[in-house]
Specification:
alpha+beta; 6 helices; ten-stranded mixed β-sheet
């Protein structure tokens, strides 16, 4: 049986779900991992629902319907959760690059960025650069490696976001990939990750 982890590992290897305008329903690895992921021409729903119920809710071969507000609301009601924001999924392979900034691991587990990350990820590690920028790495949906970055307002627009996104690629095993979830409206973050070699592979809506 195909799992969400199988699908994500395949995407990391460059193999995407078939673009047949279809929908695949899989069990979430945990309640925290309930989500809807849209790839080109195919949607993956990770939720404890019957595929037959999903089919009843969706018109056939309509790639927009699984991410529409009416369906997301119905799905949330069915699993007792609510849809969170829409994020673009970005992906990049590991990178060994001496140009990444000097980082110091955060010892303070009460740091606000770490506290937030621990709500959604396991094995979380946080680092700060000399300018106060933060990069977080941990295991999120289906155990995939995920990162998040934060650049202080005082040094915005100076390339620090790109350097932190690059640093995240250097903080993972050499044979691994790292994911980032970016809200489409956050243009500055989008530009930073794209400049650091990440590529857009789909979109994701998680359920909280």
């Amino acid at each position: 049986m195909t799992t969400l982890a199988d699908i994500l590992r395949s995407v990391e290897g460059g193999t995407f779900p078939i673009a047949d305008l279809g929908v695949t329903v899989v069990s979430p690895p945990s309640a925290r991992d309930s989500c809807v992921m849209a790839f080109t021409g195919h949607t993956v729903i990770a939720a404890d629902v019957d595929p037959a119920w999903v089919a009843e809710q969706l018109p056939p071969e309509d790639p927009a319907e699984p991410v529409s507000p009416p369906f997301l609301t119905a799905l949330g009601a069915a699993i007792g959760r609510h849809a969170h924001c829409l994020d673009a999924m970005l992906l990049a392979p590991a990178l060994a690059d001496p140009a990444v900034p000097d980082l110091v691991e955060l010892a303070d587990r009460g740091h606000p960025r770490l506290v937030r990350a621990l709500e959604f990820r396991d094995d979380v590690r946080g680092y700060v650069d000399p300018y106060g920028g933060v990069v977080i790495v941990g295991r999120g949906v289906a155990g995939r490696l995920e990162c998040a970055i934060e650049v202080p307002d005082a040094v915005q627009g100076q390339g620090h976001g790109r350097r932190l996104a690059l640093a995240a690629r250097a903080l993972i095993p050499a044979d691994a990939h790292i994911w980032a979830q970016v809200t489409p409206g956050n243009a500055a973050s989008f530009r930073a990750f794209l400049a650091a070699g990440y590529r857009i592979v789909g979109s994701e809506i998680s359920f909280l």
